[in-house]
Design a protein that fits this description.
Helix content is about 80%, strand content about 0%. Helix 2 packs antiparallel against helix 3. It has a domain of about 80 residues. The chain is mainly alpha-helical.
């Protein structure tokens, strides 16, 4: 009688199944890790808002003070308001980039 022997998987099939297993484990870890949920998103929005608004208001206050005590041919209020806005946006950009780097690092560690 002819007995059928089990077919050995080809090397690339084994590699594919290992990749699928790693992705599945990564997705399961992500479901268990709920630290990046709705509250995390809302807190990031608040953090970005404050990071922009505080320097903008401080710049406007400095501009008003300069206009009041050191008036000249320039409108310091508008210049300082724009300067504070630029500083605030730059600050928010760096915070978001830092957070994105941390999230990517976490994902890379989970994928390994």
């Amino acid at each position: 009688m002819n007995e059928k022997q089990p077919i050995k998987p080809v090397k690339h099939e084994r590699i594919l199944s290992e990749k699928i297993g790693l992705k599945t484990m990564s997705k399961l870890r992500a479901k268990r890790n709920t630290s990046h949920g709705v509250w995390f998103g809302l807190s990031m929005i608040g953090l970005i808002g404050w990071s922009i608004s505080i320097p903008t208001l401080l710049g406007a206050a400095l501009g008003v003070w300069l206009d009041k005590y050191h008036s000249g041919g320039h409108a310091w209020t508008l210049a300082m308001l724009v300067g504070g806005l630029v500083v605030g946006c730059s600050n928010a950009w760096h915070r978001v980039a830092k957070e994105e780097k941390l999230v990517r690092k976490e994902q890379d560690e989970n994928d390994e």
